[in-house]
Structures are given as structure tokens and as C-alpha cells.
Amino acid sequence: MQKFLGVFERQLDIKGRLALPATYRARLGTSCYLTLGTDNSIEVFTTEKFEEEADRMQELQARGEISMDRLRAFSARALAIEPDAQGRIYLDERLRKHARLEVRGPVMVMGRLDRIEICSVERYDRSMAAGEQEYSETSS
Q1: What residue spans define the domains of the chain?
Q2: Pair 91, 19: CB distance under 8 Å
């Protein structure tokens, strides 16, 4: 299965819409799912991957590895959406608030192999610095 790779800086429009990169749109198809991501992000899943993730979350909750509240937040905040003709997706106010995104503000869109992650520039910079530092400290 083709992976989501790379990073793109975008801007939310006044209506809270985000234009996804063309390479991502082709892989997502005509519909996708948005939900809360870790560390103040929004995660975008293909339909197939969302179903897998939802099943995984249910299993984790059944084993007591995550709380029912986390499972509820994951499912209650999930949105099935269809990108418009220009490849834009709507980020509702609750998702924007979770990710600390402002309309007309910059947004980072990055591939995370099996999903797309949307976050603020500040969160992206912090995460990349920490990840690159970890790579520098790890000997092969």
C-alpha cells in the first residue's frame, strides 16, 4: 500500500477549509475520515484505515489499555467527509480548537505513513526538532 510521505505548509481559509496536497488527494479517493490526533493534531484516514483504527481502539478499550472516555472522544469527534472539487476539506471548530489552528492561519500537513497529520506550525517545529535530535543521538 502506498504511504503518505512529505510535509506541506498550507493555510486555512476563512471558512475553515484546507486544501490537501494533490498527492494525498489521489490516495484518499472520494472520501476520508478526520478525527482527533495525539499531541494536538488532527488525523486524516482513508476509509479502510479508519475502520482498522476504530477496531483497534475498541480492542484497546476492551482490554483496559485506554479509557472509555478516550474511545468516546475518538468516535464522537470523527467526521466522514468528502473533499470538494478543489481538494479542500472542512476542519470543524472542535477539531481546529484541539489542534490549535486559526482560520486564515498557517497549517502543516504531513504524511505519517498510514495517515495524514494536520497540526500547527509550532507543534510541527517542536516535533521535528525532537525527532531529529533522537535520530542524532541514536547510533546505527
Answers
A1: 7-137
A2: no
Closest CA to 114 of 61, 53, 35, 73: 53
**64 in helix, strand or coil?**
coil
Reading the chain (140 residues) residue by residue, the pLDDT tens digits are 689 999 999 999 999 999 999 999 989 989 999 999 999 999 999 999 999 999 999 999 999 999 999 999 999 999 999 999 999 999 999 999 999 999 999 999 999 999 999 999 999 999 999 999 998 887 65
Report field, pTM of the whole predicted structure over 0.70: yes
Alpha-carbon dihedral sign for residues 34, 36, 37, 42? positive
CATH number of 7-137: 3.40.1550.20
